[in-house]
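EI: anyone free to look at a 234-residue chain?
SC: sure, send it
EI:
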Amino acid sequence: MALILNIDTATPVCSVALARDGKLLALREKNEKNIHAEVLNNFVMEVIAEVGCSLSDLDAVAVSKGPGSYTGLRIGVSSAKGLCYSLDKPIIGIGTIDSMAQFAAQELKGQFNENDLFIPMIDARRMEVYGAFYNHKLEAKTEVKPHILDENSFLEETKNNHIILTGDGAAKCQEIFKERDEIKIYPDIHCSSRGMLQLSEEAFNKQDFEDVAYFEPFYLKEFIAGIPKVKGLR
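SC: here you go
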C-alpha cells in the first residue's frame, strides 16, 4: 500500500497529487506561467495536511521528468530530490508525455474507440511541439520527439485512424487542422499529476527507482541560453 507524492511542473501547470495505491487522495493544481517556485512547496504541504499524514509517511516521491519547460522541470526535480534526500525515500521519474496520455484517456473516457490514437503535445517554440503516439490501450507506438506542424502533418497516421490531440501544444493546431475532420483537438486537457498516479504506483511495485544523486530531467533538446540584451552583459 504505497503512499506516493506526485509532482508535475513540466508545463505552465503546477500540479501536486497525493495518492495511495494509485488512488487520488488530495490534489492542488494551478495553470499559470512562472508560479512553480512560488506555490510548489505550499501545494506539497497542503495535500499532506488534507490527508492528515506527514512527509515521513510517504513511501516515495514521483516527479514528471520531461520533456517540458527547462525551468519548470528543474524546479520540480530539485524539490522532489530534496524531499527524497531529507526523508530517505526513493524517487520515481515519470515521462511527462506518458502521464499526459493517461490523463487524456481519463478525461475522454467513453469518447474514443480502439482505432483512435492519442498524441499528447507540449508546446515548444513556434510551430513545434513535443509528442508521441499512443493507442487506445495507452501503449506508446512511437518515441517522444519534436514535431514541426503544418497542414500536412500526420497524413500517414490518419489514413486508418482518427487522432486525438491534447495538451498545451494542441492549441496551436486548431487553425492549421480546421479542415481535418479526422483530427480531434482538446487543448483544455492539459498536463496534470493525476495522470501520474497509476504510472507511479506501477513503478513503485516494480521498484523502478531513479538514482537520487544523479537523476536529471529529460529535456529532449539541449538548453541554449539567449544572448543577454542588457548592455555590458555580452
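EI: The two ends are 54 Å apart (CA to CA).
SC: 👍
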